[in-house]
Write a structure and sequence with these properties.
The complex is a heterodimer. Chain A is mostly helical. Chain A has one domain. Helix content of chain A is about 50%, strand content about 0%. Chain A has a two-stranded antiparallel ribbon. In chain A, strand 1 and strand 2 form a beta hairpin. In chain A, helix 1 crosses helix 3, helix 2 crosses helix 4 and helix 4 packs antiparallel against helix 5. The longest helix of chain A is centred in the N-terminal third of the chain and has 23 residues. Chain B is an alpha+beta fold. Chain B folds into 2 domains: about 130 residues, Roll (Ubiquitin-like (UB roll)), CATH 3.10.20.30; about 150 residues, Fumarate Reductase Iron-sulfur Protein, Chain B, domain 2. Chain B has 10 helices and 7 strands. In chain B, the strands form 2 sheets. Chain B has a 5-stranded mixed beta sheet. A two-stranded antiparallel ribbon of chain B has the order 6-7. In chain B, strand 6 and strand 7 form a beta hairpin. The termini of chain B are far apart. Classes of the chains: A mainly alpha, B alpha+beta. At the A-B interface, helix 3 and helix 6 of A face strand 2, helix 3, helix 5, helix 8 and helix 9 of B. The structure holds iron/sulfur cluster (SF4) (2 copies) and FE2/S2 (inorganic) cluster (FES) (2 copies). One iron/sulfur cluster binds next to helix 8 and helix 9 of chain B.
Chain lengths: ~270, ~280
């Protein structure tokens, strides 16, 4: 991406010497700033919320629900969860919030996601702020160099996101118990978890890397009918990737907040049966 | 501006409300009005936005108004156009700051009060008035090595399955209007990147050939996945999708060509698993 943030000299880009002599950096009359501003505000809100929750190291378990921010819980200092995702592979030396161990993966997945890249390049970095609105950077090298060339590792985060989604699916199954761990119950929390996991899977499977690995990389679909079919499905989901990115971001925060409310004793989980 | 000046509806245009079906701010009944236009006039040595008041009738598009200006007030106004049907890609310009085809931009999308600004494409050198020098695009087109015929298959013997060419057919809808090239901030805002970056239209061409079921580039030693990055500047694209936003053919340039091409480059350069898999069994094609 751009290395300099100083205002561009008047003689570059759309104000360059060979271009039509038009002084304003854009002539758009619509509210082009609305989308990047809303995007930046939404992402910022999530960052603030999730940073607070990830470092809080408290109120993330209310039987039978575990916050998706703390699952799986990989350190010994985790709240004990009956048959829950407690895997103490980090042992007792880890003294910080266990959320930090696992959040790296979903964070990396979303940070390198093709949709979120577009969102933050536009919303935070103004590169470009909107189409045909000149960006305020003097130089631009895109994703050709370090560090942004690392965006190319998105695929590995996809590989990691699949097992994480698997564990959250397991948590959702566990959510069909009551607070005494008896099976066959459902509360408002189970419903929230269910919606969340469906959105997480839909977001994960609509990933561009997923679409590519499943079939996009083939040159002869006719020789791989099954993968072609799968690619077609992934493509349909992929068309909604932006919506799924936002929906799953919100649902994950809502699930966590719901667990927080229960764990902090703000109210009791309404049980359906 | 007076909104209800009910003058002559204009030759042949009629007042059928269907013609303004997409109109938002206008009433379909009053047929003609006078619109405020600001059109850039000038050449490589300089120029400015000039104000005009010009008649608009039902069902007209921006190109009609530019033509009326030519006919009535600015006989020497330079404008490039051919088909008036959104198929030749000649009439690209920027209308209220947005890259669009003049012949496909209906006047009914604007309110009668607003001033409509028309400028030439701002990413390319201007020649005169609304005409720019788009030769950058032809240079870039020539830099993409063409289809490599498969060895041992005579012309006329090429056989392809429809499912194998579906993807490329989307890209073939391109009318070469270069609106995507004009909007792309990589070159629009950074003249110095023009040498290294082919632009969305021609990266899409690379993707098309790389997905082509019969292209034998790889066999002849040309790795399109690699050259997409090394020679056509794929890494400059930060997938912010402005090319897709402006494409009048609604080609999903970013989702269906650029991102898949980036993924193909990752296969080639950054994914040891895929690389190893390809070494062991040379299939996956
Ligand atoms: S998506 Fe890439 S090629 Fe298209 S306009 Fe944006 S930076 Fe340019
Ligand atoms: S891809 Fe679309 S915007 Fe670009 S030149 Fe072709 S038709 Fe025009
Ligand atoms: S998760 Fe968005 S592209 Fe992979
Ligand atoms: S005149 Fe042919 S596309 Fe507009």
């Amino acid at each position: 991406m751009a290395t300099g943030t100083q205002p561009p000299p008047a003689s570059t880009g759309v104000r360059g010497p060979s271009r039509a002599a038009i002084a304003p950096r854009h002539l758009r009359t619509d509210r082009w700033w609305l989308a990047p501003a809303a995007t930046a505000a939404g992402l910022l809100a999530f960052i603030v919320y999730s940073t607070w929750r990830a470092f809080a190291n408290d109120d993330y378990y209310a039987a039978p629900y575990v916050s998706p921010f703390y699952s799986p819980c990989l350190a010994e200092n985790c709240a004990p969860m009956r048959s829950g995702p407690n895997w103490e592979i980090f042992g007792s030396w880890w003294g910080l919030s266990p959320a930090l161990l696992i959040l790296i993966f979903p964070l990396g997945f979303r940070l390198t996601c093709y949709y979120y890249r577009k969102a933050y390049y536009r919303g935070f970095w103004a590169s470009p702020p909107a189409c045909a609105v000149a960006e305020p950077h003097a130089k631009y090298s895109g994703e050709t160099r370090f560090p942004l060339i690392l965006q190319n590792i998105h695929r590995y985060f996809f590989y990691a996101a699949v097992p994480v989604a698997g564990i959250l699916t397991y948590d959702t199954v566990l959510a069909f118990r009551d607070e005494h761990y008896a099976w066959g119950h459902m509360g408002l929390g189970s419903l929230i978890f269910l919606v969340n996991i469906v959105l997480i899977w839909a977001y994960t499977l609509s990933c561009h890397s997923c679409r590519h690995i499943i079939g996009g990389r083939l040159r002869h679909f006719s020789k791989h009918p099954v993968r072609y079919r799968l690619w077609d499905w992934a493509g349909r989901l992929n068309g909604r990737h932006m919506q799924l990115a936002w929906a799953s971001l919100i649902s994950v925060a809502v699930s966590d907040f719901y667990v927080y409310l229960l764990a902090s004793g703000a109210f009791d989980d309404p049980r359906f049966f | 501006m007076s909104t209800g000046t009910d003058t002559d509806p204009g030759a042949g245009t009629g007042t059928s409300s269907a013609a303004t079906g997409g109109g938002t701010g206008t009433s379909a009944s009053a047929s003609a009005y006078e619109a405020k236009f600001r059109v850039w006039r000038g050449d490589a040595d300089g120029g400015e936005l000039k104000d005009f008041a010009v008649e608009v009738n039902d069902g007209e598009v921006v190109l009609d108004i530019i033509h009326r200006l030519q006919a009535t007030q600015a006989a020497d106004l330079a404008v490039r156009w051919n088909c008036k049907a959104g198929k030749c890609g000649s009439c690209s310009a920027e209308i209220n700051g947005r890259p669009r085809l003049m012949c496909m931009t209906r006047m009914s999308v604007f309110s009668r009060e607003e001033t409509i600004t028309v400028t030439p494409l701002r990413a390319f050198p201007v020649i005169r008035d609304l005409v720019t020098d788009v030769s950058f695009n032809y240079t870039k087109a020539r830099e993409v090595p063409s289809f490599v015929p498969p060895p041992g298959v005579a012309a006329g013997e090429y056989r392809m399955q429809q499912v194998d060419v579906d993807r490329s057919q989307e890209f073939r809808k391109c009318i070469e209007c270069f609106l995507c090239q004009d909007t792309c901030h990589v070159v629009r805002d950074h003249e110095e990147n023009k040498a290294a970056f082919a632009g969305p239209r021609f990266l899409m061409r690379v993707a098309e050939l790389d997905m082509h079921p019969l292209d034998a580039a790889a066999e002849s030693g040309l790795d399109r996945k690699k050259t997409a990055q090394d020679e056509h500047g794929l890494g400059y694209c930060n997938i912010t999708k402005c090319c897709t936003e402006v494409c009048p053919e609604h080609i999903k340039i970013t989702d269906n060509a650029l991102i898949p091409l980036k993924e193909r480059a990752v296969d080639r350069k950054y994914d040891p698993l895929v690389w190893l898999g390809n070494k062991i069994r040379r299939r996956g094609e």
